[in-house]
Amino acid sequence: MDFISTHLLTLILFIPTAAALLMIFLPKDRVNLLRWWAFIASLVPFALTLLLWGRFVPTQSGFQFTEQAAWYGVLNASYHVGVDGISLTMVLLTTLLMPLAILTTFNIKERVKPYMILFLLLETGMLGVFMALDLLLFFVFWEVGLVPMYFLIAQWGGANRNYASLKFMLYTIGGSLGLLLAIQLIGVVIGSFDLLVLFDKWLQVTAISLPLGLSVATVKVIAFWAFVIAFAIKVPVWPFHTWLPDAHTEAPTAGSMILAGVLLKLGAYGFLRLVLPLYPVEAKTFAGALAFLAVAAIIFGALAAWGQTDFKRLVAYSSINHMGFVVLGIAAAAQAGNTPDSVIAVNGAVLQMFNHGLSAAGMFFLVGVIYDRAHTRDLNDFGGIWARMPVYGSLLLFTAMASLGLPGLNGFVSEFLVIRGSWPILGLATALGMVGLFFTGAYILKALKLVLHGPLNERWAKLNEISTREILIITPLAVLMLGIGVWPAWILNVINRAVQMWF
Question: Which of 63, 175, 279, 346 is the most buried (most CB within 10 A)?
């Protein structure tokens, strides 16, 4: 028990990898064994995360459950992990969605073994980003999460999977190159990659011996934009978004759940964990640009979603729309620093990351449910499905309303906090973002009308109702959507202390 307590984060982080390595020795023709092995292996980190959540002290400042060990001594880089209220929330989201996504994959019949191995490795990559307290370690896990998702799209995706996976890879690698160069610069200047050291020393750097006669201020601006572009691609925000609809459309259902539910949050987390603490001056200088990108994402994402006829592509564009509110909260914090309004905005942004993870994963899953039966995602082909599948229709309506931000459900709480906190700081941007909310309602209601309402298309007269296994997948998400909407304090109390400390 002492070992578990001392190494709780390491166990959560590497149990999926250990399970993936052991899976190599399991026979590939034992499909059910492989499925249940991966599912149980993903449940263990979730159980340990619940233990972590129970032992976490929200009123305590700084990082908790920290572990540190020598890694690359010559570079002064270490294996240093820990969590605060922000990262703990993201760890909970990751470990919750992963077993649900794996349970979704139980209908996969081809190459089950490599499929499950990739999912487990993906979990370690994502968790590592949220736990890392060393900048080089952060980058390693950042890249580790890229590779499994590329292969999941390329090997198990739709007809245009090669194009979508290559586009996904090129965009993210392009952003990562600038991020790596900026990280190397910081490491050379400070002599350490430890974030707790960097948060203090990097801000105080005023004189550096630099090539080309560049000033310290210029170098920091260049490094700032390298970080911003890398994270903006991952979120993604306009105009770095074009990889997302293609990747979502072609990815298998479980891949889309994790891509929207967790991977997009890596970029937003990078803004919160690295950009704002390391570059407060530059962030304030360019807060207007960040606000512009946020508003563009909100409005463009909503309008693009309205124009879609592919159900899955509509939900993909909705992610751009919803993540725009996260960036708006970040822009407010960049502009105002540590003020009561910016704290409210960042609380909303972090909660919106968690809430969008729930609703987006739920929406992509429900799109997958109907696609498995109808073998089409064209909204114009549906109609009257609710009469044939009333349980499915009710779950789709509930999840869509959570995504819409209906009061009483989770999406309302987070978007309200972002708007309330951003309004006194970025009034015009917030007002334009609220206009985007109108279009959000429009595209969601359009999708519900075309799929659920109207006369039943005779093509779907024999569609099977959502199964018990599928209900078990969506139920935890629905419970949390309602629970956070009714009583958000249980998660905001964890987030708020960390936000007050950093912002």
Answer: 346
